[in-house]
Specification:
The chain is globular, with a radius of gyration of 20 Å. The chain is α+β, with helices and mostly antiparallel strands. It is 25% helix and 19% strand. The chain has two domains: 33 residues; 124 residues, OB fold (Dihydrolipoamide Acetyltransferase, E2P) (Beta Barrel), CATH 2.40.50. The longest helix is centred in the first third of the chain and has 20 residues. Strands 1, 2, 3, 4, 5, 7, 8 and 9 form an eight-stranded mixed beta sheet that branches. The chain has a two-stranded antiparallel ribbon with strand order 6-10.
Amino acid sequence: MGRILPFRRNPAPRKSELPVLPVLALAAMLGTVSGLYLFGPAGGESRAAVPTQLAALPSAGHPPAGRTIRFSRCDFGSRRNCVVDGDTVWLDGEKIRLSDINTPEISDPDCAYEKQLGERATERLIVLLNSGQVTLVQAPGERNRDQYDRLVRELHVNGASVGDTLVREGLAEEWQGFRRDWC
């Protein structure tokens, strides 16, 4: 019998296997995106002119008045107001981890069921956030940022926690301080 080689999830392609045209296209897109980031969009509007509502973060128990925001699914490029997965969003360019829930992973799930449930949680979060006025709430005693430097907050829509809704609908669990096995 031959020697058993360790399994490699994503083996690196050999230099001769790298696709040249897609790499060049990606480089061109990155140049365009970085140019917009540094110099702003065409038409003279600068990045500094974009208002931010996160400057005055809410204190515990005293959330500011909410505002209606249009969320979409995060994709390559803009990270302004979008949903990464069922418990992570970008709001006004700030990455936020929902502090009160944990949802199944979609980027590195342990099984097909976790991926499917995570996709449902992500889509439902988008619907919930687009249904009314969004408010950031810092729970009493909650840390400000997590180990990945994400802002840690509850998100409320029209005064109700979206985390509570996702838990009630079976798409999330209350945050216990660790990741659950969904498989």
